[in-house]
Specification:
Blueprint: H1 29-51, H2 55-58, H3 68-80, H4 84-106, H5 111-132, H6 139-149, H7 157-183, H8 187-201, H9 207-214, H10 218-233, H11 235-257, H12 267-294, H13 299-331, H14 336-346, H15 348-363, H16 376-398, H17 405-415
């Protein structure tokens, strides 16, 4: 480890060995801005899950208007957002894990015990979020992966990268094998497979049933939310979530140790990374769109073979975004753009849950009941409104407090003592 990776400092009169949260002044602006950028971008994809039946996100031809500006809305969200921003967010989770453990190691604290406590509370909060509010929660998967990938945090970055890439390849291989099986099946078997695929993504309900459920009250929504979340946390986690998120976290650790993710490399390096990774990633994603159109969105091919292009293009494009944000923070340091992204990033936990509260209030029956009432392009408008609210609220909050409310609660639970909220 080089000296740049040290982010700890003792407060005057404090015991260096006493567990405490890292002071905001020790944060790296580039990391905070990148986290904020990722958090905002995630909403472009999540808004589709909040506002429309689940199958509309899996195969947009199966539900809603898919022409004109609505097609453009899907194309933009798929090419530039789908899987790219959650990849960045997951990189950041792996990086955050290393930063946390490094800090505790330097202070001679029980780093693994504190990490396990931190993950335990994240898991409990995630379970509450998933089963009481929204099945699309990612915190549970993050916590479960965090219990496992922590054991490689001190590995050399090359070994981390190879392990992460290997884990990432497992869901892709499973989908490819499923596609081969589908390809050599007879017509009747193919129809059965397609029906099972779409039913699985629909949580066992039809789009019309899902609409009726989420336009109803909170209690009625449990009939879809609970089994869908449970499927994501069991079969979905074993088949995909563990390998996808765990692999990306470990790659995030490697990127941190290489100095890529914390803005430690040269400007020329980031320019080349932005151009190289961004161009290759974008080419792969666009090729995937072309293949889907070529097979006329045939479900079996689209969800086994065609998705491979976005699956592998997304991490590359995400790395391109990473490089772009590092360049942005260098050129526009201390400007409102970077300050806004960094403010959202410093309150990312609170903002992630805030998105759920606002979106479910807008779309679900216990709120305004607009589920399945807005088109894809109209959902983009909702995203922009929520972005503006989050940015303004985050900047206002941090002008008064050190941490976001959920960040403060998480720290207090982790260290088992009340953390200071004001400076």
């Amino acid at each position: 480890m080089t000296e740049r990776h040290s982010h700890s400092a003792n407060t005057e009169g404090a015991d260096a060995n006493e567990p405490r949260a890292t002071d905001p002044s020790e944060r790296i602006v580039g990391l905070d801005a990148l986290r904020g950028f990722a958090l905002l971008g995630i909403l472009v994809i999540n808004i589709q899950l909040f506002g429309q039946p689940l199958v509309a996100s899996v195969d947009p031809t199966q539900y809603g208007d898919f022409t004109g500006m609505n097609y453009v809305a899907w194309l933009v969200s798929h090419v530039f957002f789908e899987q790219k921003f959650v990849t960045l967010f997951t990189f950041m989770f792996g990086t955050g894990m290393v930063l946390f453990l490094e800090s505790k190691k330097q202070k001679n604290q029980q780093r693994r015990r504190l990490h396990l406590l931190r993950n335990f509370w994240l898991l409990l909060i995630g379970l509450g979020h998933a089963y009481l509010f929204w099945y699309g929660d990612i915190l549970v998967a993050y916590a479960l992966c965090g219990f496992l990938v922590v054991w490689v945090w001190q590995w050399r970055p090359r070994r981390q990268f190879l392990l992460g890439a290997g884990m990432l390849s497992i869901p892709a291989l499973l989908n490819f094998l499923a596609g081969v099986g589908y390809l050599f099946s007879d017509g009747e078997t193919r129809e059965e497979i397609k029906t099972e695929i779409l039913a699985g993504f629909g949580g066992g309900t039809t789009p019309s049933e899902e609409i009726s459920i989420y336009q109803s009250g909170w209690l009625e929504q449990m009939s879809h939310r609970v089994p869908t979340a449970l499927e994501f946390h069991t079969i979905g986690f074993v088949a995909e979530g563990l390998w996808l998120y765990g692999g990306l976290m470990i790659i995030g650790m490697a990127l941190y140790q290489w100095g890529v993710i914390d803005n430690s490399r040269s400007t020329q390096f980031y320019r080349r990374l932005f151009a190289g990774a961004g161009t290759l990633g974008l080419a792969l994603v666009l090729a995937g769109v072309w293949v889907r159109e070529l097979v006329a969105w045939e479900v079996g091919f689209a969800l086994t073979f065609a998705i491979q292009f976005n699956y592998w293009g997304a991490p590359l494009l995400a790395v391109g975004y990473l490089a772009g944000i590092m360049l942005l923070t260098r050129r526009l340091r201390d400007t409102v753009i970077v300050d806004a992204l960094a403010a959202v990033g410093r309150t990312a936990f609170s903002n992630y849950l805030f998105q759920t509260v606002v979106a479910t209030t807008i779309f679900y029956g216990h709120g305004f009941g607009l589920f399945a009432e807005l088109s894809r392009i109209e959902l983009f408008g909702v995203v922009v409104v929520i972005w503006v609210i989050q940015i303004l609220l985050s900047m206002w909050w941090l002008s008064r407090y050190q941490f976001g409310p959920m960040e403060w609660l998480w720290r207090t639970l982790t260290y088992q003592q009340r953390q200071p909220l004001t400076g």
